[in-house]
Write a structure and sequence with these properties.
Elements lengths: L5 E5 L10 H5 L6 E4 L4 E2 L8 H13 L5 E6 L3 H7 L6 E7 L10 H4 L8 E4 L4 E4 L2 H4 L6 H7 L5 E3 L1 H4 L12 E6 L7 H8 L4 E5 L5 H4 L1 H13 L2
Helix pairs in contact: 2-3
């Protein structure tokens, strides 16, 4: 029997490893690792950039000796795309309402260099926050859970959105895109466009954060990706 891959979870902008807590309850029988991105944090002066995120994700992946399936949520898929490239142990990339960018492309390239309306951008200080996260990120999350999450959100380094990826791991590694059909942060049309870069496309009838609103359903999809050829 083939060795079951380790599942690595990489959070998106403004979040931390804490965002996966409800999902991890559904995956206690699996080997799951969670990464932390330096571009997110509470102190704007100490934020890393995309290069730091790529290095952090790559370290997480190379510290695992066996096969790996790595899931990047939202912005988290960008450093995953570069960090996983060239690693023999990475069996599959899973983009959860995320951005499988191509080499030389940045997040702002994808948005035509316009800041999304829900970003609260502080250009002089080099970071951006999220406006009204309950509506944008957590619109289908139970109010009590959203109340716990919102105070934990951090600042996001603007450099993480302006720096391009140097390699596109999805071009050499099998990949799956999970579309969140009711996402208020990442419009469905944009998800559909980027999903075409992946060999497999799945769907959840959820908002931007199914790890909070539908953890059991998301866990089921991720389990299937661990055993997919």
């Amino acid at each position: 029997m083939a060795e079951m891959p380790t599942l690595v979870l990489i959070h998106g902008a403004w979040h931390g490893s804490w965002c996966w807590e409800r999902l991890l309850v559904e995956l206690t029988d699996l080997d799951v690792r969670v990464g932390v991105l330096p571009s997110t944090g509470q102190d704007p002066a100490r934020l890393g950039d995309l290069r730091d995120d790529v290095a952090a994700v790559r370290t997480t992946l190379t510290d695992i000796t066996g096969p790996v399936v790595v899931c990047g949520h939202s912005y988290g898929g960008i450093p995953v795309t570069e960090a996983a490239a060239g690693l023999d142990n990475v069996r599959r990339l899973v983009y959860l309402s995320s951005l499988p960018l191509d080499a030389g492309q940045s997040l702002l390239d994808f948005t035509n260099h316009e800041f999304p309306s829900f970003w609260d951008v502080h250009e002089d200080a080099g970071y951006f926050d999220v406006r009204d996260p309950r509506t944008t990120l957590y619109q289908d999350v139970e109010s009590g859970i959203a109340d716990e999450m919102v105070p934990r959100l951090g600042h996001q380094a603007l450099a993480s959105a302006t720096q391009p990826v140097s390699r596109a791991g999805w071009r050499e590694i099998a990949s799956t895109y999970i579309i969140c059909a009711q996402d208020a942060a990442f419009p469905l049309a944009g998800q559909e466009t980027l999903a075409q870069r992946c060999e497999s496309v799945l769907r959840l009838d959820s908002g931007h954060s199914p790890f909070l609103s539908q953890p059991a359903k998301l866990a089921e999809l991720l389990r299937e990706e661990l055993t997919r050829d």
